[in-house]
Amino acid sequence: MDGFLLVDKAGAMTSHDVVAMARKKLDTKKVGHAGTLDPMATGVLVLGVGIATRLLTYITDGKKAYEATINLGSATHTDDKDGDVISTATADQIANMDDQVITNELAKFVGTIKQRPSSVSAIKIDGKSAHARVRAGESVEIPERDVTIDEIVVKEIRHTATAIEVDVSVTCSAGTYIRAIARDLGERLNLGGHLTTLRRTLVSPFTLQDCHPLAQAPLISITEVIEKLFPIRKLDLAQSREITFGRVIEQNQQSGIVAALDSQDNFLALLENKLQGSQVVAAPILVKVSE
Description:
The protein is α+β, with helices and mostly antiparallel strands. It has helices at 15-26, 56-60, 91-95, 99-107, 130-135, 178-188, 222-226, 237-244; strands at 3-9, 31-34, 42-49, 64-72, 74-76, 85-88, 111-115, 124-125, 128-129, 145-159, 164-172, 193-203, 206-207, 232-234, 249-250, 257-261, 267-276, 279-287.
């Protein structure tokens, strides 16, 4: 059994919870996901089944988009609403904050920036996730890393006596933490900030419109998905046989990775040109094993 599930993840569950439910639904252990979503987060979660788990890396690295609400006025140890409050702004600080200042500060995040991921995250430190270390009482400081934020759109700003709520949409590279944007915005404005809602709307090339709750999500063939990820090369019977045995064939016309399909449009392999002696050939870098 091979293919993909495009899931609209509900809140209050981990990405691993969704994988476990999918394993039970499909009666197979070989299920993985492309990009962790926090328990509070909802939205696009791509699952791979069977050999499709080996294709997830090409999806994980794609562009992401989110809808989020940032709370300005307090900071938490997790940078989201599930954490303990560690600082609170005064009523005067909140009342005196101007919407344009907030908008201008958010605009400064756009581009390639250095971002320090939230300490409560799935990032591994010496083989153990950062969030597990924090829960165990350790002090965790994850180094900054480069991320690219393509766009931040401020959709609405609401003021209350104790907080300012900012609705934003964000388009960004893989590895960007929206919680970290909320935290850093709060620090720059000297108010404190954390995330209260997060919904992922894109894991390129899949949008929220492609997704369903897990119970209703159909298993999508690899062929249907692979065409959105790579150029396609159709192989004849002889070429298919060579690739199935892990041998090389005539070079691809396109550079980079190419998906090979057989004459029945079944996914066979990923191919990439390489130099073999004095000749350029197409070599398999992943081959679907015949069942």
